[in-house]
Specification:
The complex is a heterodimer. Chain A has a single domain, classed as Amidase signature (AS) domain (Amidase signature (AS) enzymes, Alpha-Beta Complex), CATH 3.90.1300. Chain A has 15 helices and 11 strands. Chain A is globular. Classes of the chains: A alpha/beta, B alpha+beta.
């Protein structure tokens, strides 16, 4: 089992060189990514340079870090110094950040090697990675299907075995939903545990960076590396870095698991069946499983699609052609700004900017943005009530398995429904994880989701590990690298 | 102080009363900007004090400067405001000098609210709020009329972007242009006394907007216009006077005042409409999700309050007390204001404490020392006291004392030594007596008239004595000699 942790151990002991490891993965990307299109940029030279530095440090007897030599893919809305950071948008044409995101710095500090930047829905707005100005990513399990989104590139890169680890961002489900659709582990941390410094903002009060991996233990290890206080992010919580890895083997005996009807009833029967199987797994392992109901969760999607666009409309104002990225000339500065934004943004981004601008407008603020904030408070309170009777909640990650490319691009509301099970955790700022758990009749992966109160990441990983242990072994994806080994 | 100009209300036979409120933007004198570590400095090479945060680069996040909060609290304390838990909002509008195309500003939850400021004339002007916000960059429009719309191109300097500001909003309690000037000057003194600002209007570190309306006394407020671009106290007075006249003319000719934002044109000496109420921006304020609430605890507030020294009003009162009964005469009031405005009250007090009469100390400090306020503030109090004592006891004439003071301000040194270098040794009484005797002999008619009671001829003889002695004679000593000879 070549998990990230095992690879790091091999590098640290000198059994494998970081250079060889990175070379192997670069070769896999070069071989297979043409079909998947998970990557927008592959950093051959920089990755090789970094790998040889790690080998030098090992030769010199230094500690190269817990993820020594492990190749990692980074979603292309995370800033990388001197490397294009596109957000899959034409409007950032030619822009190279002069700085690294805090998570990228932490990856390097831990010895991980950033091998490339992955595809996403433009500015992370979407659930299929079809809203990319550079073309869609394909689901490694079915080339005519979407990988989910918006972190579809990161999910597909891990699923296809191109990298053992990847980072994504999750605003309404953008890590967990593609993880479920691609059959990998994806986790959204508590808001404020991972620094957002260097994450190009979509909806600042909801965005959170998190890990993708083939296994729960790898996700925990990557989370431990990227989490922890950052003075550059005012919303970063001032707490010691978590040590989730240590709790992994503790099992679920005595843990109370609630299964809210709202996260099971409305989803496809095959998905619901897998959630019930996962519940039985936990029950068999000693957890107390009870059904429950949190009716407020059904309002989550409506509130989310006011709050997220409202914040986005403001966050995306800065792309005006004045300072960086695309500029389309006009007769005066306003005409230049209009022409630049008209040419630089895709249809979905424009739709959300308009939605959000409307929701914040004088005379409508109270009815839309204000009301949505109240719903958010309602959902937070409803979760708090539910957690009086449960330590964690279990549900589906997505209503369906991966859908066909092009299936929902003309129906935004149908597309938005993909996020119905994931959005509540973002509104509450809580952690949640999607764990692959079998497949549907077509062999498409299904994910189940574990939700927990704020700052309960160790518990989330602990429960997820028990589900993973009992999950059916995954079939190899059709677009896998020849080196794909499963988990 | 300038005398109030003829009020336009006089032409309407007292039928119109101006109602004025001022919004004063004050740049805080911090080392670094409001949300990043860049230098807060005026006059540096353009775009040298910038970083990802103050340039609003994608992925960057603001972190609040604690010193700016402290200076804002000092201002609030000095203006008798309630200091409150506060929140930043985003004020959204597109303009090339705003890196993010929104300004981070406090909106309905300002740090300081409900204070007041007492003018030297005793009027108490309410302060509605004094809130924190970030400054914008500075645009220079090249070609055309110097405005953005007809410029060939524009240059933006972002050194000022993110500089901390406090905006102090008065209640509409001001009733004339002269009073508006008093308010602005008094506020400037307070801002300097708190150490929050250098008060330099010419460098833009204090900028004033005026809201002006007129009404019949006792009526509801009239429709107001906001006047921008008031870069000096002189502009403030002229613009308000112009605007009052304009509004009265409109109303007296049967028209109605339209709510507008107007621009003061200093060269043309008129205000012109910038935009109407209907064209006003919808700023789409919403809480800034990248920052957390500012909640200054009681201990911090107490610490700040203790650090705020006496305000100009208190300091004026202290000088009045030094002067005793004649401290409140009109001329003295102006002199006291001058001394306090230039921060020379400590110098004057030192002289009085050293045995100099308060009237003499006030005269020299207000009239001579205030001409070089920066040097005077650096002056050694003991040397200043010694000089004034030499004048007081007749060792130096007033004229000589002023010459020595000029020297002292320019180079410092020992006043007695400086006087010697000028040849200002007091003339021995016997040689003065010889000179006076010769003058009497040369002008027998004038002497007879003086003896006959024409006191003003003492001045005639003193003048001649000064001339004859090359200004080494002390005027008081000459007068004493004349009186002694008259018997």
């Amino acid at each position: 089992m070549t998990t990230a942790l095992r690879l790091a151990a091999q590098v640290r002991t000198g059994a494998v060189s970081a250079a060889d490891l990175v070379e192997r993965h670069l070769a896999a990307i070069d071989e297979s990514d043409g079909a998947v299109h998970a990557f927008l940029t592959v950093l051959h030279d920089a990755a090789r340079r970094q790998a040889s530095e790690i080998d030098d440090r090992i030769a010199a007897g230094e500690d190269p870090g817990p993820l020594a030599g492990v190749p990692v893919a980074v979603k292309d809305n995370l800033c990388t110094r001197g490397v294009p950071t596109t957000c899959s948008s034409l409007i950032l044409d030619g822009w190279c950040p002069p700085y690294d995101a805090t998570v990228v710095e932490r990856l390097r500090h831990a010895g991980a090697v950033v091998v490339g930047k992955t595809n996403l829905d433009e500015f992370a707005m979407g659930s299929s990675t079809e809203n990319s100005a550079f073309g869609p990513t394909r689901n490694p399990y079915a080339a005519d299907r979407v990988p989910g989104g918006s972190s579809g590139g990161s999910a597909a890169a891990v699923a296809a075995g191109l990298v053992p680890l990847a980072l994504g961002s999750d605003t309404g489900g953008s890590i967990r939903q593609p993880a479920a659709l691609c059959g990998v582990v994806g986790m959204k941390p508590t808001y404020g545990t991972v620094s957002r410094y260097g994450l190009v903002a979509f909806a600042s009060s909801l965005d959170q960076i998190g890990p993708f991996s083939a296994t729960v233990a790898d996700a925990a290890a990557l989370f431990d590396v990227i989490a922890g206080h950052d003075p550059l992010d005012s919303t970063s919580l001032d707490r010691p870095a978590p040590r989730s890895v240590e709790n992994l083997g503790e099992g679920v005996a005595g843990i109370r698991v609630g299964v809210p009807r709202e996260l099971v009833d409305g989803v496809a029967p095959e998905v619901a069946a897998r959630v019930r199987e996962a519940a039985e797994v936990l029950s068999a392992a000693g957890a107390t499983v009870t059904e429950c109901s949190i009716p407020e969760l059904t309002y989550g999607l409506s509130a989310y699609y006011l709050l997220a666009p409202a914040e986005a409309s403001s966050n995306l104002s800065r792309y005006d052609g004045v300072r960086y990225g695309l500029r389309v000339d006009g007769d005066d500065v306003e005409a230049m700004m209009r022409a630049t934004r008209a040419a630089g943004f895709g249809a979905e981004v424009k739709r959300r900017i308009m939605l959000g601008t409307y929701a914040l407008s004088a005379g409508y603020y109270d009815a839309y943005y204000g009301q949505a904030q109240k719903v958010r408070t309602l959902i937070i309170n409803a979760f708090a009530d539910a957690y009086r009777h449960a330590d964690v909640l279990l549900g589906a990650t997505t209503p369906t398995t991966a859908f066909l490319l092009g299936d929902k691009v003309d129906d935004p509301l149908a597309m938005y429904l993909s996020d119905v099970c994931t959005v509540p955790s973002n509104l509450a700022g809580h952690p949640a994880i999607s764990i692959p758990f079998g497949a549907d009749a077509d062999g498409l992966p299904i994910g189940v989701q574990v939700l927990a109160p704020a700052l309960c990441e160790p518990l989330v990983f602990q429960v997820a590990a028990v589900i993973e242990e009992a999950a059916p072994a995954p079939a190899p994806p059709v677009l896998a690298a020849s080196t794909w080994t499963g988990r | 102080m300038t005398a109030p100009s003829a009020s336009p209300t006089a032409t309407g036979a007292g039928r119109w009363e101006p109602v004025i409120g001022l919004e004063v933007h004050c740049e805080l004198r911090t080392e670094t900007k409001l949300f990043c570590g860049c230098r807060n400095a005026f006059g540096d090479e353009p775009n040298t004090n910038v970083c990802p945060v103050c340039l609003g680069l994608p992925g960057s996040l603001p972190v609040l400067n604690a010193m700016a909060v402290e200076l804002a609290m000092r201002i609030g304390t000095a203006l008798h405001c309630e200091i409150r838990p506060s929140l930043f909002h985003r004020k959204n509008y597109f303009y090339p000098d705003m890196p993010k195309d929104y300004q981070i500003s406090q909106y309905d939850e300002p740090i300081n609210a409900n204070g007041w400021l007492e003018l030297p004339d005793g009027t108490r002007v309410g302060v509605e709020r004094a809130h924190m916000e970030e400054d914008t960059g500075k645009t220079t429009h090249m070609g055309g009329g110097g405005r953005i719309h007809d410029a060939e191109h524009s240059l933006v300097d972002y050194n000022r972007a993110g500089v901390p500001l406090v905006e102090i909003v008065s209640r509409p309690d001001i009733r004339s242009a002269a009073q508006a000037r008093l308010y602005a000057a008094e506020l400037r003194g307070i801002l300097m006394a708190t150490g929050a600002s250098d008060g330099r209007m010419e460098e833009g570190s204090m900028r004033v907007d005026a809201n002006v309306s007129v009404r019949r006394p006792g009526d509801e407020f009239g429709t107001r216009c906001e006047i921008k671009n008031l870069n000096s106290l002189r502009s403030l007075v002229r613009a308000i006077e112009y605007e009052i006249t304009r509004q009265v003319d409109v109303l007296e000719s049967g028209g109605t005042v339209a709510q507008q934002t107007r621009h003061w044109d200093e060269d043309q000496a008129r205000t012109g409409a910038l935009r109407s109420k209907e064209e006003a921006f919808d700023y789409r304020y919403f809480p800034e999700p990248d920052l957390v609430r500012v909640v200054p605890d009681a201990a911090w507030q107490a610490e700040v309050a203790a650090a705020v020294g006496p305000m100009p009003a208190d300091r004026r009162a202290a000088l009045v007390a030094l002067l005793g009964p004649d401290g409140t005469s009109g001329a003295r009031t102006d002199q006291i204001s001058t001394v306090v405005e230039h921060g020379l009250d400590d110098l004057m007090t030192a002289a009085v404490d050293g045995g100099v009469g308060a009237a003499l100390a006030l005269a020299r400090t207000a009239n001579e020392a205030s001409a070089e306020p920066e040097r005077a503030r650096a002056l050694d109090g003991a040397a200043y006291t010694a000089l004034l004592r030499m004048e007081q006891d007749g060792t130096l004439s007033a004229t000589q004392a002023k010459v020595v003071l000029t020297d002292l301000l320019a180079h410092g040194g020992d006043p007695a030594e400086l006087a010697r270098r000028h040849g200002f040794e007091a003339m021995a009484a016997d040689s003065l007596s010889v000179v006076v005797g010769e003058l009497i002999a040369a002008h027998p008619d004038e002497w007879a008239r003086y003896v006959g009671g024409e006191e003003q001829l003492a001045g005639f003889f003193t003048g001649l004595a000064m001339k004859a002695t090359d200004r080494k004679a002390n005027g008081k000593a000459v007068a004493a000699e004349l009186r002694a000879r008259r018997g």
